[in-house]
From TrEMBL:
It comes from the Bacteria. Keywords: Membrane, Transmembrane, Transmembrane helix. The keyword Transmembrane helix applies. The chain crosses the membrane at residues 47-66, 73-94, 100-120, 132-153, 159-181, 193-211, 217-241, 248-269. This is Integral membrane protein. It comes from Actinomadura barringtoniae. SUPFAM superfamilies: Multidrug resistance efflux transporter EmrE. InterPro entries: EmrE-like.
Amino acid sequence: MIWSLLGAIAAAVCFGLATVLEAVAARRAPAADNVDPRLLLRLSTQLPFAAGLVLDVVGFVLELAALRSLPLFVVQAVIAAALAVTAVAAGPILGVKVSAAEWAAVVVVCAGLAMLGSSAGHEGPAHVSHTFHWTLLGCAAALFVVGMTAGRLPGTARSIVLGGIAGLGFGIVAIGARVLTSLSPLDLITDPAAYALAAAGVAALLFYATALQKGSVTATTAAMVVAETVIPAAIGIWLLGDHTRNGLAPLAITGFILAVSGTLALARFGEPAPTGDEPAPATPASAPR
């Protein structure tokens, strides 16, 4: 199980670095008034975004491996803590000043993850009905429709709602990976859950990139973190049989709250401060303190 936990942490490192690269590309692209699926195609021509996608793929493979033996509430909290990685990297790489309070938040995240890791029970692939797999695919389709509609909302409301929808999409990716009965190519092409996690992943990436173009980065990232951690964790416990080691549920709950709370305190690192002669967006990342 220790290898699975290390794999989840490595996935968080990949996602944290990818966040920086993809957010830079998203801010450089012309902003649209609604969700434009062609945005991902335009962004893919930019080297930072392409490099971020490579890191995302590596991170997803590591996350998938971790989800085969760890509960959702552990893996999702670790993945959300990618913002702690972004915060640590922001200073030396991006020249972003990290405050003492934010360094404290990084420590809180690490403490929370240590509690979660020590309390987690060993899991295997969740055994659910085939109907559950089809339901996941239906949820992914519904999420896309809702996200496209939310793209018409004004200002901050759009960024927050799209951030939450992106988080739900990443949550479906994690749940789908958790319930895959087999990683055999022949089994994957016949499993609705495989299509659900692929579709939800692409939709989540599109909605998050769109949300970053306008509105508050902190609010967008906070909405995504809550949606991608709390809801999948609840589903894992109530429907998939995720559990802690005997007598360690209070430790797991405390660790989860600390990890998520610390991550929310680092939400501004969902998008780095602008560099060079790029105009500074009206976000907390560039506002005076």
